[in-house]
Fold this protein.
Amino acid sequence: MRLLLAHLNQPYEWEEVPSRHVAPRTPEFLAINPNGKVPVLILEDGTALPESNAILHYLASGTPYLPTGRLEQAQVVQWMCFEQDSHVPNLAVPRLLKRYPDDPRQANLPAMFEAGYRALEVMEQHLAQRLYMVGGAYSVADICLYAYTHLAHEGDFDLARFAAINSWMERIRSQPGYIGIDAQPGLEG
Amino acid sequence: MRLLLAHLNQPYEWEEVPSRHVAPRTPEFLAINPNGKVPVLILEDGTALPESNAILHYLASGTPYLPTGRLEQAQVVQWMCFEQDSHVPNLAVPRLLKRYPDDPRQANLPAMFEAGYRALEVMEQHLAQRLYMVGGAYSVADICLYAYTHLAHEGDFDLARFAAINSWMERIRSQPGYIGIDAQPGLEG
């Protein structure tokens, strides 16, 4: 999200919401997003748009970062759903759990690593045959998957054997306007 | 998916993939979807499009079932991601687990019910103020959430107190071309 905003050179204000895990369930925050999750984009007219991938979609709309073809637009949604159901729950959560040793989800770590490596294999196989996730050009499908892929090592995933993923991450880092988003502290979803 | 195809009166072939849970990990199926999940749409040129919401997006593109405005298109993605991260994992899985009493995920049922009722509350609050999920018209955002909402009672969710959701489901059932999808046997995601 901050990466896309940097690519677009679009001004914004960034406000952190204090929370344990991903659910800032205060009345003030629930009035903005009843689902109690970060991030939320607040538009200039006050409209609140939750879900990181919906925010990417909105910001990229009308720019080269969102393809315009029917199949390619559906494939962007395909990889955004893959990120939500197969990628984030397995690749992002182990990193988060390192800060919460008493979290009951610690018991699920072996299953998360198994499913997380499977998600990485799916990406590796896909990227072994193409430069970017969708349609031959850099898009929000790449940005959405880059976020927790490039931080997965902080959750003790070993990315060394994923050659195509590493080349793809290098290509993303060489995009004009790239900024490091490593400082991003919590789990956005 | 079958509901949208019926609305669109579009011919298709439906093939069931035998699987336990949601991962038909045979070599034949992995060649079609390396992520090993149903459903997958096979286009006439052989292109395989996985992820139920990407399929809905593709089929609805260019029809009244996909809104065209920038914000509304992002809101469709918003509710599709909500379905993936907050809705299906909690509302669909209890129904599935009734068939697998020895599944280790049985231990997560109390957490699933808590999060599932929270997802229903989010929908209830949203629908109390509007007729459909996005932009005042029936769209794939409604179809995507209808599927496991209207089957949630089979996983022992009590929907009686969600008046706005029940009215919304009635509005969906009264759409031209509506077909019952209750017979849908497994978990699509």
Observations:
- Residues 2 and 181 of chain B are 7 Å apart (CA to CA).
- Chain B touches chain A through 38 residues (CB under 8 Å).
- Chain B has two domains: 2-60, 70-173.
- Confidence is low (pLDDT under 50) at residues 183-189 of chain B.
